[in-house]
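FW: tagging you since you asked about this chain on Friday. Here's the raw sequence from the shared folder, copied in full. Didn't touch anything.
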Amino acid sequence: MSGIDFSQSADLVAPQLLGCIIELNGVAIRLTEVEAYLGTEDPAAHTYRGKTTRNAAMFGPPGRLYVYFSYGIHFNGNIVCAPEGIGHGCLMRGGQVVSGHDIALQRRQRPDRKPIPDDNIARGPGNLGQALGLTLGHNGTPVTLRPREAEPEWVAGPRIGISKNADAPLRFYIPGDKTVSSPRGRRR
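HL: got it, structure written out here
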């Protein structure tokens, strides 16, 4: 697989995911942006208040997907980290489609909208999930990752799109990559 030890804390796994390729439903995406969520120690984590039916996959074995429905619109995906029972995960925020481009574009493109630029197909967690064809049926399934060719340059900074513990430097991304989300109201 990827050579990543998913039993480590999410903040240690997250930068190791950058440059890896996730494959699902005929699409492969090179990850360029992820966010770490640190279980019961992290008020922004879905697992902060403990295990529920919705977040149970995050407490399961590491190296699996935790998929959730966000804002009634998108399916977002996390890669579960840390030992079983801890509740850490890495949200896949952005990436570059490296194969299955037509499939990903078909999942994302709406006929009443102008064409989606390649850099935006999997930019943002909802778009990435849609490009991969994520559904709740993938929740708890093993993740398929191809290892990166080399460690990319990366930076850590504040997470975006959340209100709790947002300033924690737990967002990891490849600087200058056009598939990385643009934080509204914040500079990268």
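FW: The helical segments are 10-17, 101-108, 125-132.
HL: agreed, and The chain is about 15% helix and 25% strand.
FW: great, closing this out.
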